[in-house]
Amino acid sequence: MKQCPTINKLAEYQTEALANREQQAIHQHITNCTVCQRELQALESTVQLLATLPVPALPDNLWAGVAQHLPNNPRIAFRQRWWKALAGAGVAAGIAIGLLVMHAPNARLPIAPASASAYVADHALLSSQDTFADRASIGVMLALQRSEP
Amino acid sequence: MKRVCFLLGIALGITALIVLGIRASSAMQRVDGRSAAQWLAFVEEAGQTVSYHAVGKAWENNKSAQFILDQGRAGQYLLQTTDAQGKSCTMGYDGQRIWYANKLHTSKMVADTGPSAILVHLAGRIAGTCRYAGRPAIRLVAQNGNTRKEITADRQTGVILAMNTYFSRRRVSEMHVEQIAYRDVVVNPCSLHTDDAMTAITPAQARAVLGRNILHPTWLPAGMTLAKMYHAPCCCDTRGMVVLRYSDGVSTLTLSEMRDCNCAMCAGCYQANNGDAIVETRTIGNITVTAVGTLDVNAMRRILGSLQ
Questions:
Q1: What is the least distance, in Å, from the CA of B288 to any CA of chain A?
Q2: How far apart are CA A54 and CA A39, in angstroms?
Q3: Which residues 122-141 of chain A have a CB within 8 Å of chain B?
Q4: Quick one: how far is CA B133 from the chain centroid?
Q5: Is the predicted pLDDT of residue B68 greater than 60, yes or no?
């Protein structure tokens, strides 16, 4: 590096905030440049001087003042959360509905063989004794019942 | 995406609130000072005490027919159905026997049934009031397990004027009265003569038929109880079979137990042709049990699995 670095670059060099390659280039330049050595010493003395200054106490109402300048922030955070929660609930509801449909009783049962019809007819006739039996509909079914061979 | 989720959530929430609101309000509703349970008990009682003549239509498994019903006191009745193709069935209860006979020369009689119905205490709700077949009516919903009954009953007499039956959320049968006349009806004794009648038996007689103790389910759905035990003829064994009838007033179950039987259908779980019953067979030792019930598959399997 032939040209002297800017004062900002020197400050970054002093705090080791530069990338490795740039840090090394400036280091080589400073070893041969008395001007930059002086500037660096001045920077270091300023930093040391600042370090000796007392740290001021934070005012009590600092957060209130900051919060005043951050309107609606909690709502934004809530908005970011609630739709995710709702989407999760929707997915869960969808899965639940799917499971219910899949487990709908008797959905895929084969039709009973002809040999079962006599049992079904007997069951229907015996069931006709219940108060809430639909006897008329049982009659419609029994009208089609054939004798066993 | 966010908007869709938002709208979906709002729609689901509103629907849930409406459904819950309707159910809560209807569950609390009273009509003529009676709650749903009291109305259902009133309808049950009417089935045993009110006499009338009714004409109407019935629908079952996509087949419909006209019916004429003569309902006597003490639950006796004579019912005739005739469909558009002329297929007809007569069924009845004369206080001792229930029977049916159709034009296909098929008949069956169950003798010594005793009192006609099991009185049960059903949970239900009032769905509203209306006029039906020229009568003031109340609409009731009773549900046990997978079976739901929507009943429209005469508000003054408790007689059922219409009934929709659903099994696993699918409507399986429907009946509605078109005309009703309250009057005294006499139901003549059954004149049917049949060799294959089912007859009520005692547990000791059932043991003799099976050569061992009856297989009883150790698990049954809540409210389901053994109503009656019968002996029925079997085509492959002169000893016949034992038939156990269970009911909770809405759902029903019949267990047919046979000894060394080779006429039972293949083991497995099936849906009856009319769609409102499940048929399942299980063999334990030399006893074959065929179960027919208006219950869901899981309940049927659990019942059969608990047989001892």
A1: 13
A2: 25
A3: 122-141
A4: 23
A5: yes
Residue B236 near chain A (CB below 8 Å): no
- Say if residues B175 and B69 touch (Cβ distance below 8 Å): no
**What band does B275 get if pLDDT is binned at 50, 70 and 90?**
low
Instruction: Establish how many alpha carbons lie within 13 A of residue A73's alpha carbon, considering only the half-sphere containing its beta carbon.
Output: 6
Nearest to B142 by CA among B240, B37, B287, B268: B37
What is residue B120's predicted lDDT score, i.e. its pLDDT?
A: 60
A76-121 pLDDT tens trace: 566 667 777 787 888 888 777 766 555 555 556 777 777 788 888 8
Backbone angles phi, psi at B98, to 5 degrees: -110, 145
Looking at chain A from residue 44 to 103, which residues have their Cβ under 8 Å from any Cβ of chain B? 83, 86-87, 89-90, 93
Tallying the residues shown for chain B, one arrives at 308
Does the distance separating the beta carbons of B297 and A119 come in below 8 Å?
Answer: no
Lowest-confidence pick of B115-124, B214-223, B236-245:
B115-124
pTM of the predicted structure, to 2 decimals:
0.69
